[in-house]
Amino acid sequence: MTKFTTRPSGLMMPRRQVLKGIGASTAAAAMSMPVTKHAFGREEHPLTGRTIDMNILGIAGWLPSSLSVAMTPLFNDYVKERFGYEVEFAFAEAPFSDLFQRAATSLATRSQEFNIIISDSQWIGALAEPGWILQLNDVIAANPGLDIDWYSQTVIDTYMAYPDGTQKIWGLPQEGDTIALFIRKDMLRDEAERAAFQEKYGMPLPQTFEDFEDLTMTDFEKVADHFNRPDKQMWGTAMQYSRVYDFVTCYLYPFMFSQGGDIWDASTGQVEGILNSDINATAMTQMKEWLKYQPPGATNFGIAEQIDVFTTGKVFSCFQWAAVGLAMITEEMKANDQVMVVAPPKHGTGDAADRIYTMGGQPWVINAFNDEEKMRVAIDFMNWWYLPETALEFARRGGNPADRPTLTADGFDDINPWNRAYKFMLEPGRSRDFWHHPKYAEMLAVQQEAFSSYMTGQTADPMQALNYAACNQQQILFDAGSASEGSSRACITASL
User: Of 178, 180, 185, 179, which is closest to residue 223 (Cα–Cα)?
Assistant: First the structure.
């Protein structure tokens, strides 16, 4: 467990590198941002004169988690000045693939080991159903600062509400995140490249954010093809195909969602006949075909591998989470103005072309078993985190707030190169999350197995992979009491 003592005014970062590809200069830049001072008078508080120990559980190697924890000294300054108490934070971490189990193992014993948890959005149901995390409706009602004008309903649906479509709130956004398209702007604007592209395809090479806003994947394929030069160790793009955690799932869903496909009926628990559809089979084929524009080993690519190939100049473009923008743009790239971040293209053709990409990001959730003192600190922390100056400071350090006042503030789009694309993709209908069901982990495991099997060539027929995932998920939901029907007789024999 990494200890963050918040008494000093300086920031204390974990010793190990936050993400592969982020350099010391980036971390130093984040740490040099100005600290906002407050002018509050001392208020009565039950913890006045005390020092409280708090533990946060977050995601190992995930920059937004580390950025938020690195800001905890500012919270200590805030409560010391306003309320007269101090806080010492410790930070525990685990990889995405292990974090839920670490949290669940602790919470199942009613432990206060982790007072605040940076959860993945899909885990809300699994944490809420057993009563492990605090339902926040009453907290929000009693704390007007938490009754926030969020940027869109997408934010609420993704990070806060469970069950889906209800007003029961269990989380508050820690890091908003959408998929963006990182582009080598210097290559895009090269006059010789522009002339060659025009001659080959009879259309101009896209140059601006607005150009990419209107682009379809069919259009962008021409751009990727133009810059795909394996003989020169340069490829057109990079996506995530890895079986690890939810990587291939998150990158396949846009091909499905944007073209009218779906994954289940959340109201009935029906998966069979929805996930394994012709639309989704076509989407799988389309995503697999994009491998020809990607470096060798792309079927194993996750976040870190994408950072590596983009920052080392092996790919012209990269479909990547906005949350890792700091790691995607090196100091040299920044100094040379080499990178532009735009909205990812639409899928489909003509008037039917649309973009619905997968949501990422994480909410804060609060341990329901906190004692009175730690619960009070946790709520104070949330009130502080959503202060306008705190949200803006988080953005300056490279984080992605999700409240409307911050995202619409003058100059927000220019704070980070990805801000405009992130905000654009956060608009209603352009991004969506997937299951928040308590059986999320089991459903994901079979799905990742199926999708990866097709992308790597182990399974030749996309429908076979979809049948396998749909049939297994249907039975998982039926066994959990969330679906009225189990797998059909024809489905029982589905295999890879």
Answer: 185
pLDDT value for 26 = 35
User: Can you tell me the distance from the alpha carbon of 220 to that of 294, in angstroms, rounded to the nearest whole number?
Assistant: 14
Confidence band (pLDDT; 50, 70, 90) for 3? very low
Contact between 484 and 269 under an 8 Å Cβ cutoff? The reply is: yes
Return the CATH fold of 2-176+361-432.
D-Maltodextrin-Binding Protein; domain 2 (3.40.190)
Q: Which of 489, 490, 426, 434 is nearest to 154 (CA)?
A: 426
- Supply the DSSP string of 383-447, one letter for each residue: HHHTSHHHHHHHHHTT----BHHHHTSTTHHHHSTTHHHHHHHTSTTSEE-----TTHHHHHHHH
For the segment 207-223, what is each residue's pLDDT rounded down to a tens digit? Answer: 999 999 999 999 999 99
| pLDDT tens digits, one per residue of 122-158 | 999 999 999 999 999 999 999 999 999 999 999 999 9
Per CATH, the architecture of 178-359 is what?
A: 3-Layer(aba) Sandwich (3.40)
Residue 418 CA to residue 400 CA, distance in Å, equals 10
CA distance 243 to 301: 9
Residue with tokens 């899909």: 122
> What helix, strand, coil percent values describe the chain, rounded to 5?
45, 15, 40
Query: CA nearest 223: which of 314, 316, 155, 147?
Result: 316
pLDDT band at 40 (very low <50, low <70, confident <90, very high): low
The answer to whether the beta carbons of residues 47 and 376 sit under 8 Å apart is yes
Q: Do domains 2-176+361-432 and 178-359 have the same CATH topology?
A: yes
Cα-trace Rg, the chain: 23
- The DSSP bridge pattern shows strands 339-342 and 172-184 to be antiparallel
- CA–CA gap between residue 290 and residue 288 (Å, rounded): 5
**On the CB side of 436, how many CA atoms lie within 13 Å of its CA?**
29
d(CA 120, CA 137): 20
Domain ranges of the chain: 2-176+361-432, 178-359
User: Could you give phi then psi for residue 181, rounded to 5 degrees?
Assistant: -115, 115
pTM across the whole model: 0.92
Please list, in sequence order, all residues whose beta carbon lies within 8 angstroms of the beta carbon of residue 92, skipping any fewer than 6 positions away.
1, 2, 55, 56, 57, 58, 102, 113, 114
